[in-house]
TrEMBL record:
It comes from Pleurotus eryngii (Boletus of the steppes). It comes from the Eukaryota. InterPro entries: Gal_Oxase/kelch_b-propeller (IPR011043), Gal_Oxidase_central_sf (IPR037293), Glyoxal_oxidase_N (IPR009880). Residues 1-24 form the signal peptide. The keyword Signal applies. Gene3D superfamilies: Galactose oxidase/kelch, beta-propeller (2.130.10.80). This is Copper radical oxidase.
Length: 358
């Protein structure tokens, strides 16, 4: 249970340089200046703006420098106007999150039990469903009660998405933590939250052949079982541990609410290397867009390029319909402590990518 403790940010400033992606709509150009006015104390592994004044950050269970209630903070609620942090509790490395249409954030799956030290213990989060309904008075916590609310089985590295009926589709993953998925731990199925009775499965997991066919490159999967999409161009791999980012571009009257997805980053490296990956693995600068209609799928992917390669780029939809590509590095693979040449003690990442783009 998180207490309403909070901590003032310290002030630092950083510059963010922005350049336009080739072929992007010509909005006002120039340089941005990002005023980074504080420090959340936890790494923004999973960041969501959950209301007009609050953001949540879900970090891995780590010995983070920010301590509250006698232990390090992992998930945190950030109050944007006051720049204060409140701690929440969950073990969410390799989890996934989506909003229900009623505004409640549903975060599911996660990491096995972690025991860093006596005061730094993360409960087994693999089968968890965590509900967070944003509030303005610091009264809301993550609701996680494995006795009453849980996935049909353990999942690490699942994906989720909100469906048109306002429910959430939770898809794939492994039953255990691993750098790359394999047949022993693959969990080739999907489910819904709230649960649905589809084809008589009555809330149980529904098997998917796609997740059988794509092991082992299917952590955080990007696809559906109905239509096989054309291959990502130029041999770019986008699933973990190459972990590209994807967005559904804005559905507008101007585009007649036609769904178009864009996937940026990833890597062209061989995915059969098992544990021989390097922190110097080059990333891809590719952004590929596909219109999800029969005609669009027949036309295929449209390829653009970011100014710098970055596998796990953050893609953020801006209010004016543009997409900000931010953060990450020019060489790496996902995870930590899984390369033969780590940077520092455990980092799989090197060469920060400092040229952000819209
Ligand atoms: C949204 O729906 C979920 C699932 O039915 C429910 O548990 C949650 O309390 C609802 N949130 C709000 C804000 O009503
Ligand atoms: C966590 O590990 C410590 C040793 O570092 C041990 O003393 C403690 O019993 C463990 N706690 C649990 C809940 O396993
Ligand atoms: C699958 O991965 C798990 C976790 O890393 C490992 O224990 C298991 O041996 C692997 N199985 C195969 C068939 O590679």
């Amino acid at each position: 249970m998180a207490l309403a403790l909070s901590r003032r940010f310290s002030s630092v400033f950083a510059l963010l340089h922005c350049t336009m992606l080739a072929g992007a709509v010509p909005f006002a150009g120039g340089r941005w200046k990002l005023a980074q006015e504080g420090n959340t104390g936890v790494s923004a592994m999973q960041l969501a703006v959950v209301s007009e004044t609050k953001a949540t950050i879900f970090d891995k269970v780590e010995a983070n420098p920010l301590q509250m209630n006698g232990r390090p903070v992992w998930p945190a609620e950030v109050d944007l106007p006051s720049r204060t942090v409140r701690d929440l509790i969950a073990n969410t490395w390799c989890a996934t999150g989506s909003f229900l249409s009623n505004g409640t954030f549903v975060h599911s799956a996660g990491n096995p039990f972690v025991n860093i030290s006596q005061s730094d213990i993360g409960p087994d989060g693999r089968q968890a469903i965590r509900m967070f309904t944003p509030c303005t008075d610091a009264s809301c916590d993550i609701i996680e009660d494995a006795q009453r609310l849980r996935l049909t089985s353990r999942r690490c590295y699942a994906s989720s998405a909100r469906l048109v009926d306002g429910t959430i589709f939770i898809f794939g993953g492994s039953t255990d933590n691993a750098f790359i998925n394999n047949v022993t731990i693959n969990y080739p199925s999907f489910e819904f939250f709230p649960p649905k009775n589809i084809n008589g499965f009555n809330g149980l997991q529904i098997p998917t052949q796609f997740m059988e066919d794509t092991v082992k490159g299917n952590h955080f999967p990007y696809t559906n079982t109905e239509v096989q999409l054309p291959r990502i161009p130029n041999g770019v791999r986008i699933s973990s541990p190459f972990s590209a980012s994807a967005v559904l571009l804005p559905l507008t009257q101007a585009n007649n609410f036609t769904p178009e997805i864009m996937i940026c980053g990833g890597s062209v490296v061989d995915d059969t290397l098992e544990n021989q990956y390097s922190s110097q693995t080059p990333a891809s600068a590719q952004c590929a867009r596909l219109v999800l209609t029969p005609a669009g799928i027949a036309t295929g992917w449209k390829v653009e390029s970011m100014p710098q390669p970055r596998p796990m780029v953050g893609l953020i939809l801006l209010p004016d319909g543009r997409v900000l590509a931010v953060n990450e590095a020019q060489t790496d693979v996902a995870g930590y402590d899984s390369t033969f040449d780590p940077v520092g003690l455990e980092s799989n990442t090197d060469k920060p990518a400092l040229t952000d783009a819209v």
